[in-house]
Design brief:
Non-ribosomal Peptide Synthetase Peptidyl Carrier Protein, Chain A; Dishevelled associated activator of morphogenesis 2; mainly alpha; 10 helices
């Protein structure tokens, strides 16, 4: 517009577009919490209204749509399509569209609660050429998906205790052995304290395997002596 502000032009979203975008959303059967977050990202990115949100949800949920839909209509109480509205201060979704989306979000979380898939985790081990930090990142990503334990920082909570225990099982055996030998708090520490000790153990083991410089042999120094070559 002339004053520099943005003016959004409405263009109907096609069902094909909804199907393409739905491919970018985390499957609700894998992680319902992430599904909710991904859906919110799409809503904000495309400024979806209630009708378009319904199309996206159907494309994503597919055969499970009937289990999740509940009282969702995508409309206002007066029958008009719920429009995209956000709080000016926070940017959060508000209004009738939020009410409608909350119906879907609640039903997805209730119908598709995370089920622990521990067999997916038991096979994840640190590779010979993988650092402890890279392994922790790789393992924790899968742990968040398959453990069904909500992440938190409570050192005595299930998330931290189980994650620390499983990281110790996944580290290379020599690293785990050194941690348990030299770190007396390994059974009750935070994840970060465990990683500090894992890095130290890794460095000590690497230093031990470095080839040692050959010892220098005895050095013999020859001194030049002057001889008197003049004739008497």
């Amino acid at each position: 517009t002339n004053d520099g502000s943005q003016q959004y032009v409405f263009r109907p979203w096609t069902l094909e577009e909804a199907r393409e975008i739905a491919k970018q959303v985390t499957p609700h059967t894998d992680d319902p919490d992430k599904w909710v977050l991904d859906m919110l990202e799409v809503i904000h990115s495309y400024r979806l209204n209630g009708h378009e949100l319904g199309q996206l949800a159907q494309a994503s949920l597919q055969k499970h749509w009937h289990r999740v839909r509940g009282q969702y209509t995508g409309r206002r109480p007066n029958g008009a399509v719920a429009l995209y509205e956000t709080d000016q201060a926070t940017g959060d979704l508000t209004g009738d569209l939020k009410i409608q989306f909350d119906i879907l979000a609640t039903n997805v979380k209730q119908n598709f609660k995370k089920i622990p898939k521990l067999t997916q985790l038991s096979s994840i081990r640190q590779k010979p050429d993988e650092s402890v930090d890279d392994f922790r990142s790789r393992y924790q990503t899968q742990f968040n998906i398959h453990s069904a334990i909500p992440p938190d920082n409570n050192v005595d909570g299930a998330y931290v205790r189980y994650l620390c225990s499983e990281l110790l099982k996944g580290f290379r055996p020599e690293i785990t052995a050194r941690i348990k030998e030299h770190f007396i708090y390994w059974e009750s520490c935070t994840v970060e304290d465990l990683m500090i000790n894992a890095r130290h153990a890794e460095q000590v083991i690497q230093d031990k395997h470095k080839p040692k410089a050959p010892k220098a042999g005895p050095q013999i120094f020859l001194e030049e002596t002057e001889t008197d070559s003049t004739e008497e």
